[in-house]
From TrEMBL, chain A:
UniProt GO BP: 'de novo' IMP biosynthetic process
Entry keywords, A to Z: ATP-binding, Cytoplasm, Glutamine amidotransferase, Hydrolase, Ligase, Nucleotide-binding, Purine biosynthesis
SUPFAM superfamilies attached to this UniProt entry: Class I glutamine amidotransferase-like
Gene3D superfamilies (UniProt xref): 3.40.50.880
Lineage: Bacteria, Pseudomonadati, Planctomycetota, Planctomycetia, Gemmatales
Record protein name field: Phosphoribosylformylglycinamidine synthase I
Keyword Nucleotide-binding on entry: yes
Pfam families in the record: GATase_5 (PF13507)
From TrEMBL, chain B:
Protein name: Phosphoribosylformylglycinamidine synthase subunit PurL
InterPro entries: PRibForGlyAmidine_synth_PurL, PurL_linker, PurM-like_C_dom, PurM-like_C_sf, PurM-like_N, PurM-like_N_sf, PurS-like_sf
Record pathway: Purine metabolism; IMP biosynthesis via de novo pathway; 5-amino-1-(5-phospho-D-ribosyl)imidazole from N(2)-formyl-N(1)-(5-phospho-D-ribosyl)glycinamide: step 1/2
Annotated PurM-like C-terminal domain residues: 416-570, 796-939
Species assigned in the record: Limnoglobus roseus
Ligand binding (ATP): K297, D716, G753
Length: 257, 965
């Protein structure tokens, strides 16, 4: 099958578009960037692509709450286009601010009559932090995480604390195989701060939608793609590539194999 | 209708905890928790809104029901508890309001005006003293915020009143000296009597008086900030060392010292000259690879940061990012570096001079300001340092630097006659205008000032939007030249761009934040996030559309034209018409006198020096040396994907890296290394030595990670006290001479620089001058980033070597600081040997012979080895003190703690010994020990007894504890 085309949706305050484009190109995809204003004017443009990517950054300054102002636009102006896109067996990926956006737009866990089921709140440390974490991967149906069991990637955020409205929602996500990425502790022990850098319930670092074709995660896989990205490469030697590349390659291979 | 939306956190109330802790800290008490019972935040909304509209808006946008609760009420509703509401003063930038208005529009909620607030509740009415401390020192900053006690009262949120044009002329021609100085002082023009007389004469020749706008333009152009008249001016310098006096008359001190060194280096390099543009554009530019150049600029934003640390730091970083964006045809920022100087955070609050913020609060605010701007811009903050010294109490220093990438074919800019003058970005308000006030019916029912003055808050997203469109416009060739709006606003930007041609500006075309600005206010406003472009008329439509597509405002202000004059009109009325030549070259020359006499200071031995292990721990735990992880992790240091050597390195990523390495073109292994040097304590003893040591440190930093010392550019930032004092200015001249001599010896050209003078606090009974502070920032080329090394020890069983000569140079050292000693000889490099040592270390690293490399700075050898060990989780036995190269006989204490320059510790595999020896043949180089698996550091005396014996965990804890916030 043809090389998939990735749409990087950018807007005021998007800022990880450059490196995530590089990661997808390295994985074999073709990448285009489009401003949210342009997509709002012509929502059908979305259907020209196979993968929709919402990158990291501070959309609209994270004013009000991280990702919220962009999420409002996805819900109110692009809901039909996104529904059609998803129904066509295509992929959606939200990284960091992109995760905050698609979660708040209801693309991962749709709200019920009492409102949203989950949110990403302020880190319990009370501050923004950039640090590397280890993730346990339970791929389930997730297209992006196929074949992965661990990932070592950095987080860089102030609002990544995954909170569910009720305990049963968290359990439900786990049972449905949607709790695909969790912060890992040292030597198999349960993680404490800073291994779980933000206090997320269930140590959740990322979740999948029910189909496995939409993934949202706080860590940045695009920041562990090159051999020199790893924080300890001067100790351990250069590897062929970083852990994170596999995620992008899985997405590309979904369309090419 | 005006509504109040008050939002409270469910569960933990982190903001309440913060203010209670702050109150307790400032009062040495524990009552903070009794005073503040809860906090909230919220929005004031104005518009044709019914209660259900507001409820829907909260539900769909403002409130996250999983973590927050909300109370909606008409403004002015009586509150349940005594409450303090903190609001930004009218006119102060509040980026959130823009986003809320945008979302309201998307959601079809008719909101016309928004303001945000924070609120704090207390149980009962507070005693007035507590209330005062709480309000003035903890809850709000008077420079930008107002506090309302009890319910809010207001009937509208909109700002501004219509402006009625009235041309103002200043009757200068008839004034005597006293009258001239009154005009300068009353108008905050900061012009000297000689300058005022020159202006008077100019207008006497014109047979008319200047308009206020003309006078302001001249004052802005001739200001220290814009013209650097002291450093670029005439200085009669006299220097006395050991009774011998030398005098030098500088016609342009900077040109004859620092610039001259760069010119000589470039001539020496000939065809291999790798400088592109130095001291001419907004940033210095050097070659990077076939496709790109890199540019680098470091700015200070000291006084605004002293008054409002968050806004000061935030707009400081925003400003230097715009400098890079305004260099050549536009640089793409690829990394930031930030260096701060503060008083110690444990300074006793009761000893604070009046009007001075506590250093801990300054530090919190500055770090947050840099964090919020840099992270939002998507520019990694990869390097920096924080230096603590009591003399920075009233004048903290905030240095912000940015490196940018410029395509080789976008390196030249030229304004052409007929080009349009286009302003892009933020709207213009009264921000930064001295003394401008206007009354408005505000929330406190009293006449208020639109907060101008020195303090602003940045809007990073506004600047990111500008960055996004400028880089596209650059690549499409839509403009011929660009510069940023910094100090002096349009006055400086248009004045500079049109200096060789001339310009005509129609001031009414400038988009305003609110009504009421006079033509002069428009012209000199320093509102943030604005750029000025020169655009060929046929490209304007394309540029306009590009900006519109991304919600960036762009407006044609006028035209560059070959008249040689600056002509300003307001709705057809001429308000200024001055010759560009007078504006830029008319300033009278003043000769300043400067003196430096070598102080006679004897080394004083501390009465009872600490034992070596205790001294080592004390230095590790001193504020300047200790871990800055609390700061570093709040910065995104990896965005853009170019990170190669991070600021924190080692087995658990918490050791102090010497310099950061970034490979900005993804997939390429060509990179840059960024470092810095700053040694104000040495400057007390000898400014020459201090400057030399700062350059040496900045170069050492980048060489230690693999940067090429023959491709290292440096930047100067002078922060000085009151330079009308000849002694102060003398120290500055001596520093500049050192910069010239050392740059020449090292082959490291200065490519850009900046100064901030008169950093002195004066009150009725106290004067505090900052120490002479020279920051040197370094930018080195890295040919192959995969050859880089880090400072953490890698494995047991390797050899440790010391490179360089150790001398009796404890003057200004941290060993003296922790022992309470003063005096002594400060470190000073050997200018002949240092370049050879740098070259050898570089060769050793690029040949793959080095496993770890750390440069020696504060705390000398002992601190360097300790840091390497605990960063790597590998122990070390240092047994070769007797073998190291020294100048004269040295005690072991001096060997351990001297801060002599141009020294490195290397870790290498035993098998590399012969090759390393060959690389360092004829240079000071000695094996000093081995790495061991045991988690401890041992250092033996020359006689073979253990001087230092400490667990790595103890050393690391000492180093991490002070700022583990």
């Amino acid at each position: 099958m043809a090389i998939p085309k990735v749409l990087i949706l950018r807007g005021p305050g998007t800022n990880c578009d450059h490196e995530v484009a590089y990661a997808f190109e390295r994985a074999g995809a073709e990448v285009e960037k489009l401003h949210i204003n342009q997509l709002r004017q012509a929502p059908q443009k979305l259907q020209n692509y196979q993968i929709l990517l919402l990158p990291g950054g501070f959309s609209y300054g994270d004013d009000v709450a991280a990702g919220k102002v962009l999420a409002v636009q996805l819900e109110h102006f692009l809901a039909d286009a996104i529904r059609e896109f998803r129904d066509a067996d295509k992929l959606v990926l939200g990284i960091c601010n992109g995760f905050q956006t698609i979660l708040k737009a209801g693309l991962l866990v749709p709200p019920d009559e009492d409102g949203p089921l989950a949110t990403l709140a302020r880190n319990t440390s009370g501050r923004y932090e950039d640090r590397w974490v280890n993730l346990d991967v339970t791929p389930g149906k997730s297209v992006f995480l196929k074949g992965l069991s661990t990932l070592e990637v950095p987080v860089a955020h102030g609002e990544g604390n995954f909170i569910c409205r009720k305990e049963w929602i968290l359990q439900g996500l786990a049972q449905a195989g949607q709790a695909v990425l969790r912060y890992a502790g040292l030597n198999g022990e349960s993680p404490v701060y800073p291994q779980n850098p933000n206090g997320s319930q269930g140590n959740i670092a990322g979740i999948s939608d029910a189909t496995g074709r939409v993934l949202g995660l706080m860590p940045h896989p695009e920041r562990n793609v090159l051999p020199t990205h790893h924080p300890r490469w001067t100790r351990q030697g250069l590897r062929k590539e970083g852990d994170g590349l596999a995620l992008f390659r899985n997405a590309v291979e979904y369309f090419t194999t | 209708m005006l509504w109040e939306v008050e939002i409270r956190p469910l569960g933990r109330d982190a903001e309440r905890e913060r203010v209670c802790d702050e109150f307790d800290l400032l009062t040495h008490g524990t009552r903070g928790g009794d005073l503040v019972s809860a906090s909230s935040r919220g929005y004031l909304l104005e518009g044709n809104l019914a209660a259900p509209d507001v409820a829907r808006f909260c539900n769909e946008l403002l409130v996250d029901p999983l973590v927050e609760s909300v109370k909606i009420s008409p403004l002015g509703t009586v509150l349940d508890h005594p409450a303090f509401t903190v609001l930004l003063k009218p006119g102060v930038m509040d980026p959130v309001t823009e986003s809320v208005l945008k979302a309201a529009n998307d959601l079809n909620v008719p909101v016309s005006q928004v303001r945000t607030f924070r609120r704090y509740f207390s149980h009962e009415n507070l005693p007035s003293q507590d209330c005062d401390t709480l309000v003035r020192k903890v809850l709000a900053n008077d420079a930008i915020e107002q506090v309302v006690i009890g319910p809010l009262k207001s009937d509208h949120l909109a700002l501004g009143q219509p402006y009625t044009f009235k041309l103002i002329t200043v009757p200068l021609r008839s004034l005597d000296d006293a009258g001239l100085m009154k005009v300068s002082k009353d108008g905050q023009l900061a012009l000297t009597i000689e300058e005022m007389r020159t202006i008077r004469q100019h207008f006497q020749e014109q047979d008319r008086d200047p308009t206020d706008c003309e006078l302001e333009s001249i004052a802005q152009t001739w200001s220290e900030h814009c013209s650097h008249k002291t450093l670029k001016g005439q200085i009669a310098y006299s220097e006395t060392i050991d009774g011998r006096t030398r005098t030098t008359h500088y016609k342009n001190m900077l040109k004859e010292t620092i610039f001259a060194a760069t010119q000589t280096i470039r001539q020496r390099l000939g065809a291999d000259d790798w400088c592109v543009s130095v001291f001419s554009d907004n940033a210095g530019v050097v070659k990077f690879d076939e496709q790109f150049h890199v540019c680098f600029k470091v700015e200070t934003h000291n006084r605004p940061s002293a008054i409002e640390p968050y806004g000061g730091a935030n707009t400081g970083l925003g400003g230097v990012i715009r400098d890079v964006l305004g260099t050549a045809l536009g640089g793409k920022p690829i990394c930031n570096t930030d260096v701060f100087c503060f008083a110690p955070p444990d300074f006793p609050p009761e000893e604070l001079p009046p009007g001075v913020l506590h250093p801990r609060r300054v530090m919190h605010g500055v770090v947050a300001g840099v964090r919020d701007y840099g992270n939002r811009m998507g520019i990694p903050t990869v390097n920096g340092s924080v230096y603590f010294e009591e003399r920075y109490l009233a004048n903290p220093l905030v240095f912000c630097g940015t490196v940018g990438l410029i395509p080789v074919d976008k390196a030249d800019k030229e304004v052409r006659a007929g080009d349009l003058i286009v302003a892009v970005g933020g709207r213009t308000g009264r921000d930064g205008i001295h003394g401008a006030t206007f009354s408005s019916e505000g929330l406190t029912e009293q006449s208020e000032k639109i907060s101008g003055g020195a303090v602003q808050i940045g809007n990073a997203i506004a600047e990111k939007k500008v960055l996004d469109v400028i880089l596209q416009a650059r690549d499409w060739g839509l403009y011929t030249a660009i510069t940023d709006c910094g100090a002096g606003g349009f006055s400086s930007a248009v004045g500079e761009m049109g200096a060789d041609l001339g310009a005509r500006v129609e001031l009414e075309n400038c988009p305003l934040k609110y009504e009421g600005l006079s033509y002069t206010e428009i012209w000199i406003s320093e509102s943030q996030e604005r750029m000025v472009l020169s655009v060929a008329p046929e490209k304007w439509e394309q540029l306009r559309k590009l900006c519109e597509a991304e919600n960036v405002e762009a407006a044609v202000l006028g035209t560059f034209e070959a008249t040689g004059r600056l002509k300003l009109t307001y709705h057809g009325q001429q308000v200024a018409d001055v010759s560009m030549q007078f504006l830029h070259d008319g300033r009278p020359e003043i000769v300043r006198s400067a003196e430096w006499t070598k102080p006679t200071v004897a080394a004083t031995s501390p009465p009872k020096p600490l034992a070596p292990t205790d001294a080592l721990k004390a230095i590790l735990g001193s504020f300047s040396v200790c871990s800055k992880e609390w700061v570093i992790r709040q910065y995104d240091h990896e965005v853009q994907g170019g990170s190669v050597i991070k600021p924190l390195v080692g087995v658990v990523e918490d050791g102090p890296s010497d310099a950061a390495v970034v490979a900005p073109v993804l997939g390429s292994t060509t990179g840059i290394a960024v470092g810095n040097g700053l040694n104000p304590r040495y400057a007390d003893l000898d400014p020459w030595a201090a400057a030399a040591a700062a350059i040496d440190e900045a170069v050492r930093n980048v060489v230690a990670v693999g940067g090429d010392p023959t491709r290292t550019a440096i930047l100067d930032n002078f922060c000085w006290g009151n330079i009308t004092d000849p002694q102060m200015l003398g120290a500055l001249v001596r520093t500049s001479e050192a910069c010239r001599d050392v740059a020449l010896a090292y082959g490291t050209p200065f490519i850009s620089g900046k100064d901030s003078l008169n950093n002195e606090y004066r009150s009725a009974n106290r004067k505090i001058s900052i120490p002479h502070t020279l920051l040197i920032s370094s930018l080195a080329h890295v040919t192959d980033v995969t050859r880089c090394v880090t400072m953490d020890l890698k494995e047991a069983g390797n050899d440790l070597y010391l490179v360089g000569v150790t001398k009796d140079e404890l003057g200004g050292s941290h060993y003296h600081v922790v022992n309470g000693a003063t005096g002594g000889r400060p470190p000073c490099p050997d200018l002949t040997q240092a370049p050879k040592l740098f070259a050898a270390v570089h060769r050793a690293i690029t040949s793959g012979l080095v496993r770890a490399c750390h440069d020696l700075s504060e705390g000398g050898l002992a601190v360097a080895v300790a840091e390497m060990a605990f960063a790597g989780g590998i122990g070390a036995d240092v047994t070769g003190l007797a073998a190291i190269s020294t100048e004269g006989e040295l005690s072991d204490g001096v060997k351990l703690f001297s801060e002599s320059t141009t020294r490195f510790v290397l870790e290498a595999k035993p098998g590399s010994a012969a090759d390393l020896k060959a690389v360092f043949d004829g240079l000071p180089f000695a094996k000093i020990g081995t790495t061991v698996a045991d988690q401890r550091l041992r250092i033996a005396s020359s006689a073979g007894e253990w001087l230092v014996w400490a667990k790595l965990s103890e050393l690391k804890d000492a180093w991490q504890k002070p700022l583990r916030w």
